[in-house]
Design brief:
Layout: E1 2-6, H1 13-26, E2 30-33, H2 44-56, E3 60-61, H3 65-69, H4 79-91, H5 94-101, E4 106-109, E5 112-115, H6 131-140, E6 145-148, E7 155-158, E8 166-168, E9 176-177, E10 184-187, E11 201-207, E12 212-218, H7 222-231, H8 236-244
Parallel strand pairs: 1-2, 2-3, 5-6, 6-10
Antiparallel strand pairs: 1-11, 4-5, 7-8, 7-10, 9-12, 11-12
The protein binds zinc ion.
């Protein structure tokens, strides 16, 4: 089975549309959304409605901290993220909030686990940025494969018997073999706001038969999204960072 994994869409309609089209072209049979559907970007209503449709059709989705922040004011965010969430909250209606409020923190699926932040404590929104965080993540899960997002930076960790997990920065478009006798923690890059100096939208394709994970980079019309960010009155930094991937 080919599973497409999408993290950190952040209300970026153009990036999500491009990634969904690419995944369909590749033959993805299952879609998984790893949290942060909204926040930062200019199209929260469209993204929530699109993902809600896909959930109705069998897609899996988990909760991100920005999703939670639309209905829980106690979530701590940076000033820019808070300004964007305040704007986002005004755009969403009760039906959109209900979609977000139904998202679980994590979803186990056979030998896989889907979660937005570190599985070590999903509700604390810990970033898996390096081997030490990955180590705690591995300790908290039994599944062979864990998929998360949150950092907006692609990374792949494999568990080792005696030392910290191996940290690998995956190259785009190249299948990574997930050797079956090891456990793996994959941090997907962001669909809608990459921060690895590559502005192309990022999503993952997992081939469960061949045991391979590919990080796919997809071009989209960044100028359109950036113009919408500015037109919405969102912080200008949110428009500029889309073209630098930072
Ligand atoms: Zn995010």
């Amino acid at each position: 089975m080919l599973i497409a994994l999408f993290a950190d869409i952040h209300a970026n309609r153009e990036a999500l549309t491009a990634c969904l089209a690419d995944a369909a072209e590749q033959g993805a049979e299952r879609l998984v959304f790893l949290g942060d559907l909204v926040g930062y970007g200019p199209d929260p209503v469209w993204v929530v409605e699109r993902v809600a449709q896909l959930i109705d059709d069998g897609a899996v989705a988990v909760l991100g901290n920005h999703d939670l922040a639309t209905y829980d004011a106690s979530i701590s965010l940076s000033a820019v993220a808070r300004a964007a969430i305040d704007w986002t909250t005004h755009q969403l209606g009760p039906a959109h909030r209900a979609v977000l409020a139904r998202l679980p923190l994590e979803v186990p699926d056979e030998d896989r686990l889907y979660v937005h932040a570190s599985p070590s404590s999903p509700a604390d929104w810990t970033y898996v940025l390096g081997a030490r965080e990955a180590f705690h993540g591995f300790r908290a899960t039994r599944q062979r494969l864990t998929f998360c997002g949150h950092t907006h930076q692609p990374a792949l960790f494999s568990e080792t018997a005696s030392s910290l997990p191996h940290h690998h920065v995956p190259a785009a478009g190249r299948p990574n073999p997930l050797l079956p006798h090891r456990r793996w923690l994959a941090v997907l890059g962001a669909v809608g706001q990459p921060r690895d100096r590559n502005p192309l939208a990022c999503y993952g394709l997992l081939d469960t038969t061949a045991n391979r994970l590919t990080y796919v980079r997809v071009p989209y019309d960044i100028d359109v999204t950036a113009r919408k960010v500015l037109a919405a009155g969102l912080p200008t930094a949110l428009a500029h960072r889309l073209s630098t991937g930072s």
